[in-house]
Write a structure and sequence with these properties.
Rossmann fold; alpha/beta; five-stranded parallel sheet
Length: 231
């Protein structure tokens, strides 16, 4: 196994990105975590990302500031109510208010820039097309299109020195399968954060889409979720 390969991992501190980083580590990559202060109303995820990067032995963990709150249009950055207590059917019906306009495109573009500087050919992102909230930038066709663009848009790609690959190891897995795989890889999910609308003390609400999908995943995996929820 070539341990000199480098990979950039988009790291939010949630279940999916943490598992994606564990995948990259298992595959022998030297891992570089990339997280963003993007104007999100709750920054507990950044504390979780720092814990994860440290625990999984990231060579470097870069935190970039972007103020997407100035763009607005999302319940995660603006004064818009976070949807609560929705059924899976309701989640699948439309793109929710927690969608942040063009977020994955912005994040992947910056990951691409850093990968080019590092000489990394692989970018890992924990997108998932099964148990997710209907975000358009989590679909396989989007990832494939971005990868094509990445190799047209970079010096390394044009010169043929490096073919950029956008790695999505979780994209066809259910949340329970992701959690089971993470446990197999030794992930401690108590250090992760998933909630879109935590209480002032950081306790997960248990009712937003992200909490509901997380709880469903642990329940179906037959594993106790190690974090606390509001009662």
């Amino acid at each position: 196994m070539d341990t000199n390969r480098k990979a950039v991992i988009l790291l939010s501190g949630g279940v999916d990105s943490t598992t994606a980083m564990a995948f990259a580590k298992q595959e022998g990559y030297e891992i570089y975590g990339l997280s963003f202060r993007y104007g999100q109303l709750h920054t507990l995820e950044l504390e979780a990302a720092q814990r994860v990067a440290k625990a999984l032995g990231a060579k470097e963990h870069l935190m970039i500031n972007i103020d997407l709150a100035k763009v607005g249009g999302s319940a995660l950055t603006d004064q818009i109510d976070v949807p609560k207590a929705r059924t899976e059917k309701e989640m699948a019906k439309d793109i929710p208010a927690t969608y942040v306009p063009a977020r994955n495109t912005i994040f992947l573009s910056l990951a691409l820039a850093w990968a080019e500087v590092l000489g990394a050919s692989d970018i890992f992102i924990g997108v998932n097309a099964l148990d997710y909230s209907g975000y358009p930038d989590c679909r396989p066709e989007y990832i494939e299109a971005f990868e094509r663009m990445a190799n047209l848009a970079t010096k390394t790609g044009v010169e043929g020195r490096t073919q950029i690959k956008i790695r999505t190891p979780l994209i066809h897995m259910t949340k329970s399968e992701i959690i089971q795989k993470g446990i197999e890889l030794g992930v401690d999910y108590s250090m992760t954060h998933s909630c879109y609308d935590p209480s002032s003390d950081g306790t997960a609400c248990g009712q937003c889409d992200s909490c509901l999908l997380r709880k469903k995943g642990f329940r179906e995996a037959g594993i106790k979720d190690p974090i606390d929820y509001e009662r």
